[in-house]
Amino acid sequence: MLGGLPRAFWALWGGTLVNRLGTMVMPFTGVYLTQSRGLSLAAAGLVMSVFGAGSLLSQLLAGVLADRIGRRATLSGGMLATAVTMLALGYSTSLPAIVASMFVLGLVIDVYRPASNALVADLVSPAERPRAYGLLFWGINLGYAVGMTAGGWLAGLGFVWLFWIDAVSSVVFAVLVWRAVPETRPETKESAGGFGVVLRDRLMVAFTLVALGNALVYAQTMTMLPVAMTEVVKLSTGQFGLAMALNGVLIVVVQPLVSGWLGRRDPARTFALGLAVMGAGFAMTAFVTSTPGLAVTIAVWTAGEIVTAGIAGSIVATLAPEHLRGRYSGLFGFAWSLAAVLAPLLGGPLLEIGSGALWFTIGGVGAVSALGMLALGPAIRRR
């Protein structure tokens, strides 16, 4: 055991970090499609929506696979499929080939998530789960920050480098998990079937709606926040990038220091607090007129993000029967995939009305989600 967590967890953590260090394609997909493949903005948007459709199916499919064929096989298989699809996209030149590759990529790139979440629940004691999920979140952010920086530099040398590095990091993750992480799926005949049993758990469905609210708020960081800051507030992309770097720095520095302490608090109240702080941070964005002002709001909603980081996964693990942890994690992941599709569809029209309409609405979603979480608290504590 390392620091109270099993060796297999650290192997999973190491693989996740390597994979995120190599995650270079997705942040630059829009640039790749328009600059390297010559697609119009409308065509690039269509291709990205096809990716979203694939990712919606991905979490439900992966949840069932994690329970049926096992966590390790699902995770490793998903990573190998991601590697192949990355290279297929990198070498696709026609629009039909690009669309097909993007749909399959949406289907396979996050297959690992329900399996990874179920693995942590299987490997780690309930008391240590918030810390374990928090450390995974920290590793993802650390890897992503470095990968983004390197990806921006490598894109200048040629986009094909990004696809190869992404593919190789996916293979490394797959091999590391296959070699160093045991299969933890409980042996039970009850693992057959679909999502009906999960959907009959009203507490899990209610928590998934709270998670959807959380995800809709957070998804603005990748959808409407860049547009609002560059088009409405008139910050340069450099100024926006500089302010956004604060998010990664705060997570990398602060999150490991507080995850153990947060893990000892009541999960429902802690999660509600994080949601309320995130909502407040995004509502404050309506008043931003400069880079320092943006940095202040980022610091506030990042504090909320840090508070919620390890809690959601541990709540899902608490609600799920052992043999259904993959499906429960898949439904939770579906909320995040759905938010990625809904966020720009809702945010775009709201931003056209005005900054206040968008950011006060997002703040309201955060507040309602926090109240919903408080209402679910007694039932979660009983479970």
Summarize this structure as a short list of keywords or feature phrases.
globular; 2 domains; mainly alpha; Growth Hormone, Chain: A; 17 helices; about 375 residues
Task: Describe the model.
49% of the residues are buried. 80% of the residues lie in helices and 0% in strands. The protein has 17 helices and no strands. The chain has helices at residues 7-21, 29-36, 41-68, 71-90, 95-108, 112-123, 129-157, 159-180, 196-199, 202-219, 224-232, 237-263, 267-284, 291-308, 311-319, 325-353, 355-382. The longest helix is centred in the middle third of the chain and has 29 residues, at 129-157. The chain starts with 6 loop residues before the first helix and ends with a helix. Helix 3 packs antiparallel against helix 4 (71-90). The chain has two domains: 1-180, Growth Hormone, Chain: A; 198-383, Growth Hormone, Chain: A. This is MFS transporter.
Note the run of SSEs as H and E. HHHHHHHHHHHHHHHHH
N-C termini distance: 28 Å
Classified in CATH, the superfamily of the largest domain is MFS general substrate transporter like domains
Which residues sit in consecutive blocks of at least 5 with pLDDT less than 50? none
Protein name: MFS transporter
Membrane topology: Multi-pass membrane protein
Keywords: Cell membrane, Membrane, Transmembrane, Transmembrane helix, Transport
Pfam family, one: MFS_1
